[in-house]
Design goal:
Helix content is about 30%, strand content about 30%. With about 160 residues, the chain is of the alpha+beta class. Bound molecules: magnesium ion.
Length: about 160
């Protein structure tokens, strides 16, 4: 038996904000706006993990009305989310994701992002897929007004090692 989960998220881009993606600060003249550190990639992975077990979404567990989560490092949210998965007897088979951003190119950072996510979750880097795409200057991503991301995860029963 396996469980599949899906996540989608969007953040606005604005000057004067840090661009945090996959746990890394990416040098850029705009950053993502949000209650936490606005790491769209970690947010979609959290949502996909929660979705796989029908546990609601990231906003349910870490509400933006709670000042605890203001400016929080989303790596903490990912760790807490994956702990919920492990507590229920499941573990990650793999996660695949796509970040949609017009600029800057993310390719130079993708290996590092995979490593960060694997470290936070305590999984092998081979279990973490990250892809990036522009939207060919179309839509809010293309107009550099925002960043979006998608992720799917597959969970398998944790039989213990
Ligand atoms: Mg978000």
């Amino acid at each position: 038996m396996m469980r599949i989960g899906y996540g989608y998220d969007v953040h606005q881009l604005a000057s004067g904000e840090e661009l945090v993606i996959g746990g890394l600060v990416i040098p850029h003249e705009k950053g993502s706006v949000g209650h936490s550190d606005a790491d769209v990639l970690l947010h979609v992975i959290c949502d996909a993990l929660l979705g796989a077990l029908a546990l609601g979404d990231i906003g349910t567990h870490f509400p933006d009305t709670d000042s605890t989560y203001r400016g929080i490092d989303s790596k903490i949210l990912l760790r807490k989310t994956y702990d919920m998965v492990l507590e229920r007897g499941w573990k990650l088979a793999n996660v695949d994701s796509t970040v949609c951003l017009q600029r800057p190119k993310l390719k130079p950072h993708i290996q590092d992002m995979r490593g960060v996510i694997a470290d936070v979750m305590g999984v092998d880097v081979e279990q973490v897929g990250i892809k990036a795409t522009t939207t060919e200057w179309l839509g809010f991503v293309g107009k550099e007004e925002g960043i979006s991301a998608h992720a799917v995860v597959l969970l398998e029963p944790d039989q213990g090692e």
